[in-house]
Amino acid sequence: MKKNKWVKQDRGNCTLEGKGLGFYISYNPDTSKSYEGAEGEFIKGMCDMVFSFVGKERKEGKETALRMKRGKWLVLEGDFRKEYEVAFPNYKKCLAVYKKNIAYRSEVWSTDY
Hints:
The chain has 113 residues and is an alpha+beta fold. It has three helices and five strands; from the N terminus they run βββαββαα. Strands 1-2-3-4-5 form a five-stranded antiparallel β-sheet, covered by helices on one side. The chain starts with 6 loop residues before the first strand and ends in a 13-residue tail after the last helix. 19% of the residues are buried.
């Protein structure tokens, strides 16, 4: 069986992608690193406003997300790379990984409400 490979991105996250699939998996080992630099400070400020608006505290740490077309994110707090590696590139299996681990859903960033 072919092993799927994670690709390191400029902002520090890694992605698992396939051409023409319409979705990919993103793993961020440290979400606090997403806010580095001038652009990051702007993003952090916007995030703080969102968290304040929804009455939640920002949690920093690891996150794994199933990213779909049209800006939909299904985000799990924690490292779920192994589960997604087994499921990828089958979308239904990736969605099943998310649903199986729904207890770890990021209430702020997931767009499945």
